[in-house]
Amino acid sequence: MVTPPPRLPITFFNRYTDQIEQEEIYGESFLRWTYESRAGQIALALAAKRVWFSKWYGWRMDRPASRAKVLPFIETYRLDPNEFLDAPESFRSFNEFFYRKLKPSARPIDDNSDSIVFPADGRHLAIADVSLADGFWVKSQKMDLARLLGSRELADRYARGSMLISRLCPVDYHRFHFPVAGKAKETTMIPGSLSSVNPIALRKRLAILWENKRVLTEIDTAALGTVQMIEVGAACVGGIWQTFAAGDVPKGGDKGYFTFGGSMTMVLFEPGRIQFTQDLLHHSSQQRELYARMGDVAGHRAN
């Protein structure tokens, strides 16, 4: 009898408790079965990463009956309704609750003119120089920028640039915001499949990031050059919705939201433009994510 490999926990450093914590994974049993068993791999190939599966699941979360999941979800994952702009009872479906807005006071935006802020609530990794990174979540996994960006020219431009990866779990606030102020261009959609972006999946195959559906937005800035922001779709994400208009955007301004499912944003900076915070760099060097909220400081303009 073959002994199955140990189930490694997903841990992260919580900036606010100053502790390493274990992630509570929504749907963990199904996720581990899908990515850690032979039968699950077959199911993944046939259905779970297909766009139709995510659209179907998203449709379910839009149904009025899904509203019954809202209050139990808030209780199970200990969310704070005092942060919500609207009362929990007002949501007409689970998806409407999922992409809820928060009160501005719940996510203050750092006002230092030199700071870069996290674009979303979530668990974050920072890479100071993408070309020198020897692992994302696990050792020996390299980022394929050309496939991620859909452009060899862009990949060459950012080959030695800095990257911030923000992973949103289903329990997180699911709106994403601009990490810097600048002039945002129209978005570019890059089609793809929809696999999970949980570390359980990414430890197996980093290529998920450049195979999944994603949206690319270029932001021209006065002090940081041109910044690329990417939203990555994931399993059971019914959509990536943009709420901004092309043109001048403020740091921390609302950019868009994900409908149901875990998901991810990625921000690419030109070489030598920024300095990430020390706690973010330290934990990222250990392939450990750092939990922080949207609007908090991720780094500063390099001197």
From TrEMBL:
Main EC class the enzyme belongs to: lyase
Keyword Isomerase: no
Source superkingdom: Bacteria
Keywords (A to Z) from UniProt: Decarboxylase, Lyase, Pyruvate, Zymogen
Pfam families cross-referenced by the UniProt entry: PS_Dcarbxylase (PF02666)
Gene Ontology molecular-function annotations: phosphatidylserine decarboxylase activity
Name by which UniProt lists this protein: Phosphatidylserine decarboxylase proenzyme
The organism of origin for this protein: Novipirellula galeiformis
